[in-house]
Design brief:
The chain has no helices and 24 strands. The strands form three sheets. It has an eight-stranded parallel sheet, with no helix packed on it. An eight-stranded parallel sheet has the order 2-5-8-11-14-17-20-23, with no helix packed on it. Strands 3-6-9-12-15-18-21-24 form an eight-stranded parallel sheet, with no helix packed on it. The chain has 202 residues and is mainly β. 48% of the residues are buried. The termini are far apart.
């Protein structure tokens, strides 16, 4: 059912492929748990629940997330968590319509992932964020925008990431926020276009 704590599509199987679906009305619309080598492609996915994610990968690796329209009203649109490695997140439109903590593309303990050619938009939180041992990721050619107090890109406790050729816009905060630079080491920022109306670039 579509009550709180409900899930639209759930899998623990490797090689799960989800294509050309419309999924809405659930707390977590798509949830891959310890599911490797699958695909989530060309879907329209949304959630309006306070703690729900549009696409949620936990302990899931080597998946392709491509050409989806993903919308969350309160929480994260695309969320890679807990040892989710070597995933390709490409060509998606990921947006957060409201709430104070929802991130459009959010990696927590996710490494060696590719985040490329996405449009990510949020309001009060980051458009794209790498946190808590999200290392050696490639973030390139994305358009990220935060319009209501959030930063376009936030990094915290993340090392060895390559952030290149992105457009990072923030209306009321900074384009890039590095939380505690002592825990963010050996990251490369190159060729990014950064804009902020009332904050700073970095």
């Amino acid at each position: 059912d579509n009550t709180d704590d409900s899930i639209g599509v759930y899998t623990q199987s490797d090689g799960t492929e989800l294509r050309n679906c419309e999924i809405s009305g659930y707390e977590d619309s798509v949830y891959y748990y310890t599911s490797d080598g699958g695909a989530i492609e060309q879907n329209t996915i949304s959630t309006d629940r306070t703690n729900g994610q549009g696409i949620y990968l936990s302990g899931s690796s080597s998946n392709t997330i491509d050409l989806n329209n993903v919308t969350s009203e309160q929480s994260d649109s695309i969320y890679l968590f807990d040892n989710s490695y070597y995933n390709n997140v490409t060509n998606n439109n990921a947006s957060v319509g409201g709430g104070t903590s929802g991130v459009a593309i959010y990696l927590v303990d996710g490494s060696h992932n590719t985040i490329e050619n996405n449009t990510a938009s949020s309001k009060s939180a980051a458009a794209i964020s790498l946190q808590s041992n999200s290392n050696s990721n490639r973030v390139q050619n994305n358009y990220a925008e935060a319009t209501d107090g959030g930063a376009a890109f936030v990094m915290f406790t993340a090392e060895g990431n390559n952030v290149t050729n992105n457009t990072l816009n923030s209306t009321y905060s900074n384009g890039i926020v590095m939380v505690d630079t002592t825990t963010n080491q050996n990251n490369i920022f190159e060729g990014n276009k950064i804009w902020s109306l009332s904050g700073t670039a970095i």
